[in-house]
Amino acid sequence: MGAEQEEAELEEFLSPVKTPTGLVGMAAALQPGPAMPLALQNISLKHLGTEIQNTMYNIRGNRQPQGTVHGPPRADSPLSGEPQRQEQPSPPEPSAPGKDPADSPKPTAKSFLTTNLIQKAKCQNSFPLFAEGLSRNRTAQEKALALEQQVLELTKELKSQKELVRILHKALEAAQQEKRASCAYLAAAEDKDRLELVRHKVRQITELGRRVEALEQERESLAQAVSLREQQVQELQQHVQLLMDKNQAKQQVICMLSEKVTQDFVQPPQQPPVSPDAADRNFLSQQEKMEHLKDDMEAYRTQNHFLNSEIHQVTKIWRKVAEREKALLMKCAYLQAKNCQVESKYLTGLRRLQEAMGNEAHESSELLRQLIEEALQWEASEASADGVELSPISEYDEYGFLTVPSYEVEDLQLLAKIQALEVRSHHLLAHEAVERPLRERWAALGELTPSVELKQLLRAGVSREHRPRVWRWLTRLRVQHLQTPGRYQELLGRSQACRHPAARQIELDLNRTFPNNKHFTCPTSSFPDKLRRVLLAFSWQNPSIGYCQGLNRLAAIALLVLDEEESAFWCLVAIVETIMPPDYYSKTLIASQVDQRVLQDLLSEKLPKLMAHLGQHRVDLSFITFNWFLVVFADSLISSILLQVWDAFLYEGTKVVFRYALAIFKYNEEEILRLRDSLEIYQYLRFFTKTICNSRKLMVIAFHDMNPFPMKQLRQLRAAYRERLEAELRELEQFKAQYLETRASMAPVLPEGCTSEDEGEGEEEA
Fold first, then answer.
1. With the CA atoms of 648, 654, 658 and 661 taken in that order, what torsion angle do they form, in degrees rounded to the nearest 10?
2. Predicted pLDDT of residue 609
């Protein structure tokens, strides 16, 4: 019985909250609470002690009569008991038994909150400490301050209650989620579904753990930042203290000086009396000195003005001389270029005259031969005007290639001389107009990033001082997914420990690499050894290829530009494994054969007149162009144009090779159309790429005249021709197999009068 009474009192003191079903979150939190008896309907959990005191005081006040309130009541006091009883709302009547509480009218959340605040204010007004504190002698200002303080306290309590509601709302949401998860777990029909729910919970726990770790790391970083800020604050405090000490010392010095000045004013120092004559003499001497100084200053000013004008005139003269010298140098370069062109035309005329005369014995044949010999022995450096040498023809270019190729045939020697003169002429004319602005653009480019501007610069060519840096960046862009630290040294160690099957072929091709380059023909050069190591390392890097003829020239070009073995090795890897299609350097060279057929198709589309002429004379261009694609024009173009092609090739890929192949035929189309014999055409095609000297013209043809040149069309042509070629190869394999089967099934038949080898051996033994 006693236990039931205690439970009833507890339920009366803190009745359970009944939340309507179907409401979750903010909707449930905004529902009004059930009515509670007396003043317990709005209890603050944050200030629980104060609430209990106020509530007990209200209970006692309601039980006591009117006259027992502390202190005599005043008519003008707003805190007296009578107004409180008039304004105090009667507690709500408890609901009748059997009546549903939901039927009673429910106030809105806003009105309910306002009512609670008013009741709280009245309850706190009834607190005896406030009644004693507000004495009758207080003024209206003190009462207003007390009320403001009370409002602030109520505002703080309201904020705390809102925070409590927010926390309880979150807890309610978490509990509802947990309840839904538990219900789903219990309602699961199979263990598989329950296991999936458990896994989902495990994933949530893991995610929460990660978030906790992230927050912990953030807390540690914030703690470190706080410690750094504290150190900075301490340093600033020390600096401020130092400045304050300095300021104090300066104040002391100022005070001492001020005291000294004051003493000097109060007690001026005694000076010996000076006679009027001596004072006049001193004054006159000072005036004379001042006049002399003024005269000197005026003289110096005039002299400075004169010197400035002279310096200005000398500067103008120097600028005019520099401009004139530049103009003279440009004029001299132009004249030298014209001289080279005239000499080239003269040599071309001698060559054509020699071709027209042939081997006929004529009186002028001896004179023609002498003129050709003199032309071959003449050096362009002797023709420099006034001792000015701009760019004489040297024996080797900047990468070690022969400027004038050495041909044994006299006709080809004359052609090589003409080619060298043409190259020099174009170089002189393009030096000021093209090369210098291009060099300035590369110098101002800065960090390399893929862009349209970079593509245009690469097509125009890279200057020699920037080419190694650009090629290293292009190589790294291609092989960054393959490149690992120490990989090249590892491959070198493997090649030293075990001899690769391709090592013999590599040794044979080393001596045949660029015989017209001094770096690979000089016995003391280190380039052949570097090339050997690069090729051996690549043979271990890509065992499916090992080594293929042509790789030596690709690696040699990379070595000449980059001058580092490892950089040249990765450049070779970039070309073979990322730029060129698969099977380009395999044993069958199937991808190389496909590109030759694609080139034939593109030539028929872009240059139909030329292809009709070559088809009329049954000229197969693959004999000439196959090597172009295999080694990317190495040994075909002069070095300046070759490296310009490689600049764009390393960035854009194999499309550049097709563009330049078409441009080479377009460049020499008229010369080829003049030829009327297949043998003559083949002889011309052997060396006609060496006659191309104007790199700018070739670049314009490749990237402008050959447009449009979609990569999609190139891929489609490659796929179609590869399928055809593979079908042809399968057909050839079938023919081969049939032939071998037929040959094996046939019995060997000997002609009459012939003996077999076995019979011959038997007769010899007998």
1. 60
2. 95
| Residue 183 tokens, joined | 């219900």
E runs forming strands in 377-529: none
Contact status, residue 392 vs residue 384, Cβ threshold 8 Å: yes
According to DSSP, residue 399 is labeled T
424 touches 411 (CB < 8 A): no
Q: What is the DSSP string of 315-371?
A: HHHHHHHHHHHHHHHHHHHHHHHHHHHHHHHHHHHHHHHHHHHTT---HHHHHHHHH
* Cβ neighbour number for residue 426 with a 10 Å cutoff: 20
According to DSSP, residue 588 is labeled S
- N- to C-terminal Cα separation, the chain: 140
Residues 6+ apart with CB under 8 A from 566: 488
CA distance 121 to 116: 9
pLDDT tens string 311-346: 888 888 888 777 777 667 666 666 666 666 676 666
Distance CA 736, CA 726 (A): 15
Calculate the alpha carbon distances from 274 to 270, 279, 281, 285 in Å. Answer: 12, 7, 12, 16
Distance separating alpha carbons of residues 332 and 326, to the nearest angstrom: 10
104, two tokens:
């009673």
Amino acid at 28: A
Report whether pLDDT(388) > 60: no
In whole angstroms, give the CA distance from residue 253 to residue 730. Answer: 106
Question: What does the pLDDT look like over 59-81, one tens digit per residue?
Answer: 555 554 444 444 444 434 433 33
- Tens of pLDDT, residue by residue over 442-497, are 888 888 899 999 999 999 999 889 999 999 999 999 999 998 899 999 999 999 99
Paired tokens of 140: 């209206």
Exposure of 400 in the CB half-sphere (CA atoms within 13 A) = 18
SS in 3 state form for 534-574?
Answer: HHHHHHHHCCCCCCCCCHHHHHHHHHHHHCCHHHHHHHHHH
**In whole angstroms, what is the distance from residue 165 CA to residue 264 CA?**
79
